Give the backbone structure.
Amino acid sequence: MALRILLLPLLGYRLLAVELTSSNTKPVVQEFQSVELSCIIKSTITPDPRIEWKKIRDGETSYVFFDNKMQGDFATRAEILSRTSLVIKNTTRMDTATYRCEVAAPADTKTIDEINIQLTVQVKPMTPRCTVPKAVPVGKRASLHCHENEGYPKSTYSWYRNSEPLSPDPRSNAKFHNSSYTLNPSTGTLVFHAVHKGDTGRYSCIATNDAGFAKCEEQEMEVYDLNIGGIIGGVLVVLAVLVLITLGICCAYRRGYFANSKESGESYKTPAKPDGVNYIRTDDEGDFRHKSSFVI
């Protein structure tokens, strides 16, 4: 009896305290679908408690439902259900956040209670961008890349050759036992350390997450043999052409085709002799002088 008397204040306090609960504190929904954020008043004696919803994202808090009205962009795509729960329609990736349901009950001994709901909106991957080299010589390294950045949660990647999936570990599959490659499902990178003829084929990649998947178009990669004989022959031909050009230039120099014409001294041009003038050279003068003769 005494124990029951001692428990009564505790029981009374519990009955007079507003208390909230939820049927799902971590709902997950795909983008563009509707979702209900459950907030249930488990106990209260206040006939008309005040309800508020807040959104917490990247450290910032904003109102969703306040003063009995939806706020911001939620005004056209959200509503209150069953007095306290929140329904969001046409969800987007930006709706991923923590939502807080707050109830104020002035008539209760404990007048305020709150509960947090963590909403995750999943987004399907977009078509990944794939990069595949068109041609690679035997024995060389080849890198194939696949990536997309729209999906949420983050996508994982798998590669296919001729529509057949490549095993993450080539040693675990007899079909790829001769291949030497590394496949990273997190980054979408496929690296052949030394390609061989069997690696020739049509390659494609699939990005996958919990919301769905997307695939890029197949791209052909050809592995070809190096023509060593042809390369050596080509080098020899080039060397032969260079030798012939050099010999031709040397011969041209020897024959004087590239010699510069230089004058060895001053050029002297004998002036025309006018009528009636005779040029006579004397020993004393050492040069020419003229003697006029007149005809009368």
User: Anything to note?
Assistant: Confidence is low (pLDDT under 50) at residues 1-13, 261-268, 288-296. The longest strand covers residues 112-122. The chain is about 15% helix and 40% strand.
